[in-house]
Amino acid sequence: MGRIDILLIPIDGGSTMSHAEAAEAVAEIQPPLAVPMHYHWGGAAESFVAALAGRYPVRVSPTRTIMVSRRDLPATTEVVFLSPY
Questions:
Q1: How many whole angstroms separate alpha carbon 60 and alpha carbon 24?
Q2: Nearest to 77 by CA among 7, 2, 14
Q3: What pLDDT score was predicted for residue 60?
Q4: pTM for the full predicted model
């Protein structure tokens, strides 16, 4: 598959993969940026962050979109929730 710079990861915890499986996918792929999707279900975001067990910095973007360039990617994996979180 090659280098993956940005991973869009579904974290609904039900119809896709469990939160533990999503956290493991992030660990295996090690993208500079992981952007969770499908977290607007009760507790999905919190459960996913708990499954990460503090392995990665987690931040919430104040906007619904972000601009990314390869040179601005973090050196190690970071998880970014797009607003609204």
A1: 21
A2: 7
A3: 92
A4: 0.89
